[in-house]
Amino acid sequence: MVEGREVEADEKPWEEVQYQLPPAPDVKNLVPIDVGSLTENKFAVDEPSVTFGADQVVRYTLVATSPGGARNVSYEGMRCATAERRLYAFGRADGSWSKARNGQWLRISENNLNRHHAALFRDYFCTPGGSVSSTDEARRVLRSGNPAAVSR
């Protein structure tokens, strides 16, 4: 049994597919995301980096900018089915990537520190009854919001 249900004989356990790190984000491709008013940091996703994999993982480059202009760039993944996220790599100033030391899947929680992950989960990629199922759809909801999102 898995999470209170029987596993079919032909059902395979989930397995993550190989991924490639995208090019460094270009400012002109950054799509701002609304994370609410509890933080002064600004968050944006690099639209060309957004992909939806055969493993049902939405992968994207996130850019967080502080009020003072400091930028943090990260390449991340999100599993809607399990409400988890994973950090793959951090962006360096020269456009290269540094692999994350802790690349474990972590539960997405609604708190000030992870508000951007919760917003991407709830309002964009993984809304109840309206989770994305393709790269095109993931990019579309990033730009316009997910119509299945429940208003906050």
Describe this structure in words.
The chain has 152 residues and is of the alpha+beta class. It has one domain: Lipocalin (Beta Barrel). Helix content is 14%, strand content 30%. It has helices spanning 115-125, 135-144, and strands at 30-33, 42-52, 57-65, 71-79, 84-91, 97-99, 106-107. Strands 1, 2, 3, 4, 5, 6 and 7 form a seven-stranded antiparallel beta sheet that branches. A hairpin with an 8-residue loop joins strand 1 and strand 2 (42-52). InterPro entries: CNP1-like_dom (IPR014861).
CATH topology: Lipocalin
Q: Name the helicity range.
A: 10-25%
Radius of gyration: 16 Å
Q: Using DSSP, what is the number of strands? A: 7
Strand content: 25-35%
**Which CATH-level-2 architecture?**
Beta Barrel
Would you list the SSEs in sequence order as H and E?
EEEEEEEHH
Largest beta-sheet characterization: 7 strands, antiparallel
Instruction: Identify the CATH class.
Output: Mainly Beta
Which structural class should the secondary elements be placed in?
Answer: alpha+beta
Overall 3D shape: globular
Distance between the termini: 36 Å
* Count of all domains: 1
List the uncertain runs: none
How many distinct helices? 2
Average predicted confidence as pLDDT: 86
